[in-house]
Amino acid sequence: MTNAGITVSWGMKPQDWFAIAEIVERAGVPAMVAFARATIRTTREPVRFATFFLRTGWKGLPPAARAVPSQPAAGPAPHCGHPDCDPVTRTRETEDDRGIRSLTRCPACNPNAQRGHAA
Ligand SMILES: [Zn+2]
């Protein structure tokens, strides 16, 4: 989660931990991260607690086998599910050895991904 740029408090009640563990088993972490990123993008207030995601949708995530929804307008390839890969733009935020962050097209699922230089 933190690797995906999401920093939230994981303080929660034991039953919430059990619920999250069950969702991790069922839906998988990539689906949870993708949901969390989409949620952060649409909320006005900063998300401080992981339980926010639990309440707003993690419980409704489908099983991993069906975790990739059909996205007719999003391009030919389904989202790869990589936690660093933005499901909308299909770009990954990477950090080079000088600590400089940059967006690169996801080599796994970006329809415009090419070798060589980006446009
Ligand atoms: Zn991708």
Explain the overall architecture:
This protein has 119 residues and is an alpha+beta fold. The protein folds into two domains: 1-69, no CATH class; 80-119, no CATH class. Helices cover 29% and strands 8% of the residues. The protein contains three helices and two strands. A two-stranded antiparallel ribbon has the order 1-2. A hairpin with a 5-residue loop joins strand 1 (91-95) and strand 2. Helix 1 packs across helix 2. The longest helix is centred in the N-terminal third of the chain and has 14 residues, at 14-27. It is globular and about 45 Å long. Bound molecules: zinc ion (ZN). Residues 79-80, 82, 85, 90, 106, 108-109 line the site of zinc ion.
**Total count of domains:** 2
Please describe the biggest sheet, giving its number of strands, its sense, and whether it closes into a barrel: 2 strands, antiparallel
Could you give the order of strands across the largest sheet?
A: 1-2
What is the SS-derived class? alpha+beta
- Indicate the overall shape: globular
Per DSSP, the total helix count is 3
Chemical compounds bound to the protein: zinc ion
What fraction, in percent, of the residue positions are helical?
Answer: 25-40%
Q: Hey, roughly how much beta strand do the residues contain? A: 5-15%
| Rounded mean pLDDT score | 76
The H/E string reads HHHEE
Total strands: the figure is 2
Question: Regarding quaternary structure, how should these chains be classified?
Answer: single chain
Give the N-to-C terminal Cα separation.
30 Å
